Sequence to fold (779 residues):
Amino acid sequence: MWTHVVSHQQYTPLSHCTMKDLFPNTACITAVHYGIESGNSNDIFHINSYSGLISTRKHIDFESCSSYKLKVTASTNAGAVSKIIVYIYVIDENDNAPVFVKKEYLGQIRENNTPLVIQATDVDRDANSQLYFEILEEEALRIFKIDQSMGTISLISMFTVHVKDSGEPLLYAPKPAKVVIQILDVNDCPPQFSSPVYKASIIVPPVTKAEVVQVIISVDNVTDFKQFYQLVVRVSDGLYKDSAIIKIALINLTETDLKFEQHVYTASVSENNKAPKILAALKVSGCYLNEPLVYTIINPMGRFGISKTSGIFESIGVPFDREIQDLYEIIVKVEDSHTPPRTATTLVKVYIDDVNDNAPYFLNLPFSVVISDDIEPGDVLYQVTAIDKDLYENALIVYSLEDNFELFRIDPKVGDVSLQRPLDFEALNKYVLTIVATDESEPSYFTASQLTIQIRNRTNPIFQTLLYPLKVPENVPLFATILHVQARNPEGYRLIYNLQEENASKHFHIDFKTGVLSVTNPLDYESQSMHVLTVRATDSVTGAYSEATIEVEVEDVNDNAPIFSKLAYSTNIAEGLPIGTSVLQIFASDKDSGRNKELIFQLVRTEGNETNFFEIDKQSGLITTKEILDYEDTTHFDLKVQVSDNGTSPLTSERFVFVNVTDVNDNPPDFINPQYDTTLDEMAKCGHIVVKIQASDKDANDVNNLKYKILSGNEGRYFNINESSGIIAFSNVCKRNLDPYYNLTVLLSRMMLPVLTITNASVCVQCAQKYYILIFFGM
Fold:
């Protein structure tokens, strides 16, 4: 069986390929009949049975099928048969315009980094698929440039990118692609004062909150004020620092004809008002008509402003709170245009008008009183007192009872609680009155609290006090005496003490004879910080009794170690980020209270010296970087974080924080060998491997993202390169007019959006016989 190779351009008829050329001996013997035995799928080709001419019947598309393998037979009437394989290679024509992968690109880049890669595809091959990118807007070209071959944009604007191929004729993408790039700020500029030295002066007498210099420094204390101060001010953005010297001198004003018409101006503004309000128009005498004057406020306090030219003094809309400050004394200064300028000052007193924005509150409630059952109607039992922070009518208070039990009344103005009718001890011996205090303004505010009235029979036992407040540490020893309760019985009989709450015996016990209270089970501040007990003293003969309240406040002891929010912490951080970058914030809590729950974080030094690369804020637990991390040096850190409380005997806990450094495209790819030498047989078939180019990348995740491309030297389309593997193969066996050697420029790129790294190389190959192809590598 024979083989024959034919090349054919798409869209043109296949001609001048006859089987007589392939079977030369059959023509002179007898009539020969030709036919296609196989490989003619979809009936694309036709062969003339007499002449052996192969032609096309249908449209041929290189992008659908680039080659065909036909088995052709030639037979005679005598029964002789011969077969041959015909290879038909379709030559690509530039019939496909490039297409953008996206219609619009949005990229974010850090300063000084390559931001974005614009990608487009062309289904054609070789030169027909060689794309050239260009930015259409001239304005954008002043800021950005684009690599015409790879579409990489390097150094916030929007512009349009167009792409064309290299075929004949040139074809453009149907529509350009829009590109929007936002430049991300990097902390690469240190803070800097506008001047290394500032000079300022303060007018005598100095006033508090006076602004001295624009950085801003204000006067805090005017007592014992010196004639001269020199301050050093430092500023930091967390990474960079700067400092400046501020020189402040105290000066006395020289009296001139330039004066304010009033030594003191007064104005008022309502509290809580958020709208700016004109408070006064300050006028000056001793100056010419329309002479330019400059007004300034020495101590604006962030609430007042003044027109620099007209002297209109106003509030700027920051709400006031009269209950915090009801008067502001503002110093205003005026200067004329003389050299040196004449200066005058005046005082503006701004009074804050009251608004009803506070509810009343009680001074002596809640409270408990004990009264005898023989008290007379009309007797005052207790006087409640409430006050209101507001003024005048906003502070007038009216008292009332939610429920008077048809026994009690309260004076609405004075707050006296009195009895309306005789008490019945047998009916009820304890009343809880809810007293309401309401102000008389609109809108009105109110508050409520309780007054407990205990009725005592003359024969009932009498406690030393109705309330026993106690403070007991939570680590008090078991069965320790914490209180001795005593009551007196007017009848002289023995008293029996007991606790009324059902669950009181869980933690406490009272001796029924002596009234000694002790702890029976451990107290825990974190579970319950207050225990309220009711102790009853009962006459052992008559059964008469009285009750008192015991409030046991459990004091915290540092008995709980801090607890981390997680058993372990893990996070990822990209390499190359600037010093001071936040890594992770660690949270912990402590069930104790006060200083016992104040936590301090620190990194524990380990063998890996992680503390050289990271630090932690002692209060917030925020871990930040101390050095720029490099994935190629260290891919993982194990940090040990310790947290301790602020107790007298501090308790600590520890946790591990696993920090994984992620790889960033910060290393360019590189070729493994500087030069490749290979040979190529001139009879090599299509697809024959010429050479495999290999490259490496220190960035672990980028090895599989390397792409190879023949950039130049392949005008005859004799070679094809696999963009992923780097294999260069022989691709055109139909044209044998090869040059003695070729210089192929190979492009190596790393397509990791948004960054693309490019390296060029020249490739050299040697043919086995008379052809020589040279491949050189370069960076």
The chain has two helices and 66 strands. Residues 19-22 form the longest helix (4 residues).
